[in-house]
Amino acid sequence: MNELQSLLTQEKLEAFHAGLMQDAYLYFGAHANGEGTRFVLWVPDVSHVAVACTNPENMEEAVYQMEQHPQDATVWQVHISHKMIGYSYEYIIEMSNGVLFRKSDPYAQASELRPNTKSVIAPVSKHSWSKTVLQRKKIQNKDHREKPMAIYELHIGTWKRTSQGGFLNYRELASELIPYILEMGFTHIEILPITEHPLDESWGYQTTGYFAPTSRYGTADDLKYFIAKCAENKIGLILDWIPGHFCVDEHALALFNGGPLYEEERLERRANPDWGTLNFDVQKGEVVSFLLSSAHYWMNEFKFDGFRMDALVCLLFIPNREERPHNPEGTDFLRKLTNSLKEFYPEALLIAEDAWHYPKVTHDVSEGGVGFHYKWNFGWMRDTLDYMETQPSKRSEVHQKMNFSLVYQYEERYLLALSHDEVVNGQGSLLNKLPGTLDERFLQLRLLLGFWIAHPGKKLLFMGQEFGHFEEWEFKPELDWPSLETEEHRKMAEFTKNLLAFYKTEKAFFELDDHPDGFTWIDADNHEQSVAAFIRRGYLPQDECIVVCNFSDRHYEKFKLGVPESAEYEGIFSSGYEYQKAAIKAADIPYDDLPYSVEMDLPAFTMTVWKQKKMGVEQDER
Predict the structure, then answer these.
(1) Contact assessment for residue 563 and residue 586, using Cβ atoms and an 8 Å cutoff
(2) CA 153 to CA 191: how far, in whole Å?
(3) Residue limits of the Glycosyl hydrolase family 13 catalytic domain (predicted)?
């Protein structure tokens, strides 16, 4: 970066204050180049500002007074004729009453390893993106609405550790994780936040460094190496990013100039008592430029394939109001954000997490929407897990929880997330949510994942659930990988692998995910037997599949089901342990409001998939 790029012109300052700057990280913060190091900080309504820099070799601190920008008294800067790469630093801010306090840099691109909190002057990146990676980034998510998407949600620090119990760095993660993802068959990885944060147990959701990859797992170039390796192996990489709220720790953004600066000025909207965080003030242009620039930074500098944006409830709804009225200020900010990202990174996925009942989250801004591509289907997740946690003998009484999601399925483009939120804080792992004996729980977990795959919507699964992690997720050293030495967990992992391979093969399960033509109930209301049957379709008639889910603990030997064609149907997949390949001929007997019917063997706790048998062609046995 040359000195000219670092200079804030009047035009750039106006854009920054108006909330229109998308590359503020090029101008604010600390930047070392051949001629020295320049520090630039936005902090209004203070008397003096200095930067304290610590030499990593002798730990001596030197303090440099900063001056106000000649065209803008809210911007403080200093140029030091010494290249200070690797130095730690923090700002000393003096209020008008003489009170002094120290702050880390909001625009720092590196930070000390916790529990230390100073910012670090980052070196210029040595990483070079290959043409192969850059080309792959352009096509990774091409036509994503019509392609399979199975996301593996991952917390880097607890997925796997080194033999000494330490964190894997990003390069070690690449060598361990990428082969696993390829073997299992996931299409994308979503990593929990890696923006710098002070507390391990926050999982990254209480951010202090919006431009700094956490130092826990290595350097920025180490992270770029991992991202490039994902791209080379055709794995999409999604970053969990938090645009609505931030950490209260006093060394960071909170009360940055002695009063509310980044946080909401209105006291009643400022804090999130449940999370212990502060809400951004998105009415301030400087805060909007800060957040826009953070989003662009991760896309431009690190080439992520998309964002999953956390806790949008803080922006779409007025905070701390039980009735949750819509928040036009927060929604306008999100529209500006999604429009900006789509303009510069049209290939990136934008996924909304907790958007609750806000309308048109996945509609284009030009259509009155918020501009995301997908929205987590919290309704499906909670209803389905409530249903599966119910004793089989009582499921007939709550059958509507299993089928209700199709009432609203096509109002938005949904992603079905079986996420970390559902396996923490005493809720139990997916396996241990389920009733019955251990063998029955494994059968029901296979059934649950089968239903997850067969239901319309893209897919996300939290780490460990693919092999039936026994304990709920806590901040422990790593997942229980030794459990794979037991037959039950090994079979569960193999089943998930086969299920994902099946999903990616059968176009009926992804081509028309967000179109009503892709789904038709055969029988949604069979609560007496706790069975659900439906049809999934792709673009071509021959891709049509019939899905039958038996959520009961009863084996139905001659289960009667309506079918649309007078044809021979062949079983192509089953979640059961022992699957006997079978074919059944449709009888000319109407049933379930369809012109033909079949009788099939339907084991307890099993999902089966049937397809019209092609004459002279054998289907692969799953």
Answers:
(1) yes
(2) 6
(3) 153-496
